[in-house]
């Protein structure tokens, strides 16, 4: 897998010029009343900047810079229904996505960023798009027999997680000591650590591990989904100040989820459209941080 740099991606710290008479919220730096901000940017024809992590199948940047993956493909389809086709990617780590959104470095987080209580308190999440399970990547034959959270707690081994990711936080909340969960910035980094023997395995979404194995041609096994992990899912995250645009987008996204095109996108990337339709933002936002 190529390791993508920020070159050619959306510039950090851009944004639309706001009229001199427009007031802003001192807590967010965004226009008050929900009438400006992202809506104004879209109306002026500026590109809508989509934050991604380049973690297939959730998000993917092709070698030529083409933005794809399950979440961006859904976002682009929803925006197209709104008459918007000018979008650009902004690659970021999961732990910087919400701070970068609040700082106006990008406009929508479309990265499979799982909902939880803390995140839902900071941003507006749309209707769910991707619902996920978690698994371990382990060496061939799984000699240590790692399959459950209790196995990880009780066995003398470590597993890699991504910095700022859901898996590390949830594992710690389930009682796994932090020193058993070394962090890495991207999935290929975690894979290299496993291949080098620095960690026994990797804890990531099942589909991410399947994609990683296929793209890297790596020799590892993927365990069945870990039952102790609660239902998780993502939506597209917006600044709370962008209420006007968010409401239009969310309405279109709900309608889009009932289409064949939505099913085709989900099937292409290995996700279950019906699971997405059944999940609610309210239930996913109850997930502990």
TrEMBL record:
Q: Which GO terms describe its biological process?
A: ectoine transmembrane transport
Q: Which residues form the Solute-binding protein family 3/N-terminal domain?
A: 47-273
Keyword terms of this UniProt record: Signal
Q: Which Pfam families match?
A: SBP_bac_3
User: SUPFAM superfamilies annotated for this entry?
Assistant: Periplasmic binding protein-like II
User: Disordered: where is this region?
Assistant: 22-42
Superkingdom as given in the UniProt entry = Bacteria
Among NCBIfam families, the record links this protein to: ectoine_ehuB (TIGR02995)
Tell me what this protein is called.
Ectoine/hydroxyectoine ABC transporter substrate-binding protein EhuB
Q: Which organism is it from?
A: Prauserella muralis
């Amino acid at each position: 897998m190529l390791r993508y740099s920020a070159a050619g991606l959306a510039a950090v710290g851009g944004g639309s010029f706001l009229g001199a008479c427009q007031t802003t919220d001192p807590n967010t730096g965004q226009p008050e009343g929900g009438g400006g901000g992202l809506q104004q940017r879209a109306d002026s024809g500026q590109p809508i900047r989509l934050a991604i992590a380049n973690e297939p199948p959730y998000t993917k940047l092709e070698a030529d810079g083409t933005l794809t993956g399950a979440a961006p493909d859904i976002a682009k389809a929803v925006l197209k229904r709104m008459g918007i086709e000018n979008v650009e990617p902004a690659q970021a780590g999961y732990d910087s996505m919400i701070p970068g959104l609040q700082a106006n470095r990008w406009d929508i987080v479309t990265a499979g960023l799982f909902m939880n209580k803390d995140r839902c308190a900071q941003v507006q999440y749309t209707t769910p798009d991707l619902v996920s399970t978690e698994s371990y990547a382990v060496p061939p034959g799984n000699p240590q027999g790692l399959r459950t959270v209790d196995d990880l707690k009780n066995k003398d081994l470590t597993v890699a997680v991504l910095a700022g990711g859901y898996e590390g936080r949830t594992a710690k909340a389930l009682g796994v000591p932090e020193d058993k969960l070394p962090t890495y910035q991207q999935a290929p980094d975690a894979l290299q650590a496993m291949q080098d023997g620095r960690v026994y395995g990797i804890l990531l979404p099942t589909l991410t591990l399947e994609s990683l194995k296929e793209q890297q041609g790596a020799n590892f096994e993927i365990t069945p989904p870990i039952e102790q992990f609660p239902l998780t899912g993502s939506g597209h995250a917006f600044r709370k100040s962008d209420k006007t645009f968010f409401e239009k987008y969310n309405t279109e996204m709900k309608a889009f989820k009932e289409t064949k095109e939505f099913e085709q996108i989900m099937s292409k990337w290995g996700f279950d459209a019906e699971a997405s339709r059944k999940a609610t933002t309210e239930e996913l936002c109850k997930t502990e941080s």
